[in-house]
Amino acid sequence: MSDGAVATTLFAVFMAGTVALGLLAVRGKGRGGGLAEWSVGGRSLGAVFIWVLMAGEGYTSFSYLGAAGWGYTFGAPVLYVVAYMSCGYAVGYVVGPMLWSYARAHGLVSITDMVAHRFGRPWLGAAVAILVTVLLLPYIQLQLTGMGVVVSTISYGAISLNWAYFVGFAVTTLFVVVSGLRGSAWVSVMKDLLVIVTLAFLAVYVPLHYFDGYGDFLGQLVDHKSAWLTLPGSGGSPYGEGWFATTTFLNALTVVIFPTTVAGYLGARSADALRRNAMWLPAYNVLLFVPMLLGMAALFVVPGLTGADSNLALLKLVVDSLPAWGVGVIGVAAALSSIVPMAVFMLVIGTMWGSSVFSLVPRWRNSSSALKTWSQIVVVVAGSLALVLTYAAPHTLVRLSLISYEGMAQLVPMLLVGLVWRRLSLTGALSGLVTGVGIVCGLVFTGRDPLAGVNAGVVALGVNAVVTAVVSVALPGERDERPDEVVLARDPVGDPVGRGPVGDPMGRE
After folding, report:
1. Does pTM surpass 0.85?
2. C-alpha span between 259 and 447 (Å, rounded)
3. Average pLDDT over residues 458-482
């Protein structure tokens, strides 16, 4: 059997196992529940499932492609990923239980629900759902693209890019539509086991195979590639100290309100599970150093990679040095690192449209099963749109991805500040959001990111916050007569179980 056939067979077996594991999660509550069961696992996932699900958000195809590619091309700037994720977990220790408590008290299932409930405007949730969909679609497309590159490479060309894209879409859509967040959590267990084993193996194997261990490898790096070890890295990159600090700050704030992160929060059984999770998650970041270091190791083994080819730095080491079955196993881990995050992105988009857009239709508003059905349809549509654009216009969504994280950051004042400051008005929140998103688009698409060494998203968020505060004070809008315990969020420290009152499933008072 050829190397390509061996690797492809392994890939096919694991993909079948992925679908089976996702469908197995349908047992019990998974199939018959309504929107809350499908979208947030019935708020019943324990600490272990929440840990693997949220840890999986940090290990996408970027871990095997982008992290190694950035390490190969720039060096030290790639460490911003470890920095912002670790800081984000610290912020999440406080914010996660607060969002969980607020959503549980009012029966909410997404950030769009929270925004609509806080300001008492259902249409606002629908508007935010549309904006967030535009910002999330690039992530689906990028995971499809990443999986295609991984699978085509590890199969020695036996599986084409186009077929790899379709397989990723089909596998992900099938188990997400049927089993929702619970299925993603179950598949995350298999994915995380493979990620831990394969990255731990490569961390030991590559330095020994290509060098005389870490001493020799790091010695060569210091002697011949020292620019890769300090900011701003190699090649005159714009990613210096200012960019590193501001990007870490911005992303640490943004990751805690990122819709996929919030989906993990809301699926938890208790607030204490989220606190424990926030303490455990930074340990998982240690693995991120592996592709970063091995990307720099590839500088000596496969020199001369430029542009998008640099993202193949780690995979080229794998294909060059391992037998076909080893290549297949590592390829499966990398492919699952695309599938699991892509599943949660698709799930979140469907949930937002079900709970915030379709709930505006009177005939569906009071039917959780109908909203779940429409949410599942949106999952298929969103995935199909990303797949079609991957084939037809691969660079369209890639350009949009430049503003995805920085654009999502502009929701921080509306969501987080709005849940702790009663005087924040609808007019102020909308004014800040529009201003922030406009500045991000203007700076990114005119090539001014970073701006004077500072992340453009931080500049936009600063202006956003000022506009939000000033307009809220100057134009307070209509007085909200609802009591503070309805409008504002609290960290449920005083409740040992972390339950709080449970309202209507769709958040109506």
Report:
1. yes
2. 27
3. 92
